[in-house]
Specification:
Elements: E1 5-9, H1 19-23, H2 27-48, H3 55-68, H4 73-95, H5 101-120, H6 128-145, E2 148-149, E3 152-153, H7 160-176, H8 179-209, H9 214-237, E4 246-250
Antiparallel strand pairs: 1-4, 2-3
Helix pairs in contact: 2-6, 2-8, 2-9, 3-4, 4-6, 5-6, 5-9, 7-8
């Protein structure tokens, strides 16, 4: 089935980096990515009254609009754009091989930088759809392509799931007091805190700089790209050696 990983046994040691090491950003990169997510959502909500990334809020506002006979298209279009981004991400994952995965993900981050930069130079009179819809689409891309940090699942564009994972990890650590349980608790706590700090920064920047505040998010996203490239290069330098010379390769059925 798609997404399943089959294990192939070989007597040859492979120097190709393991996909899990390459695709999973380190905690610093994931935290920076989540800061951008919080920043952008605070910016779009304060500037346009809608969430570009956190679609749960848009669905709630849309439901309230339907119940109270208020306009709902303002909330529907971002949801559809987000779904389009997720579908595009699935196509990207289908088309690339593990060897080309790094380039596909790097290209995704570059597209995000370009979109944020273009939005930053739009005039303040530009239609809000020119701002919100591209951001919603790249949010779907990012969520579908960047899902774990060092084996710990995370979401960079919202915080509800991260809060749940933190509570689960913290409870597991409190019950067992093992190092294996401590790492997920620390990582998820860092991700949650990053989203909060990003939202605070977005609110502050939007208040003082108005619609041009999104340029800060573009700069932060450049930092994400640089960190991701650093992570992947570091992973490539580590030889891929599994116990018994067993090499795991993702195989789509």
């Amino acid at each position: 089935m798609p997404g399943k990983t089959l294990v192939r046994t070989s007597n040859v040691t492979s120097n190709e980096p393991a996909p899990s090491r390459v695709l999973g950003p380190c905690i610093v990169t994931a935290s920076m990515m989540t800061i951008v997510g919080g920043f952008v959502d605070a910016y779009t909500f304060l500037s346009h009254g809608v969430f570009a990334l956190a679609q749960t809020g848009n669905v709630i506002f849309m439901a309230i609009g339907l119940a109270t006979h208020h306009p709902v298209l303002i909330y529907l279009w971002p949801v559809l754009a987000y779904l389009a981004g997720v579908v595009t991400a699935q196509a990207v994952k289908r088309l690339h091989t593990p060897r080309h995965a790094v380039w596909a993900l790097s290209a995704t981050l570059i597209v995000q930088v370009i979109v944020l930069a273009l939005i930053a130079v739009l005039p303040s009179t530009a239609p809000e759809d020119w701002v919100v819809l591209p951001l919603s689409a790249i949010a779907g891309l990012q969520l579908a392509l960047f899902r774990n940090v060092s084996g710990v699942a995370f979401v960079s564009i919202a915080t509800t799931g991260n809060l749940m994972r933190f509570a689960e990890a913290f409870t597991a650590f409190a019950l067992r007091h093992t190092r294996e349980n401590l790492r997920p608790a620390v990582y998820t706590a860092a991700i949650v805190l990053s989203f909060v700090l990003g939202a605070m920064a977005g609110a502050f920047a939007t208040h003082y700089f108005g619609h041009t505040a999104i340029a800060i998010a573009a700069g932060l996203q450049v930092g994400v790209l640089v960190l991701f490239i650093r992570d992947t290069r570091a992973a490539e330098k580590r030889p891929r050696v599994e116990q018994g010379n067993t090499v795991a390769a993702p195989v789509a059925a």
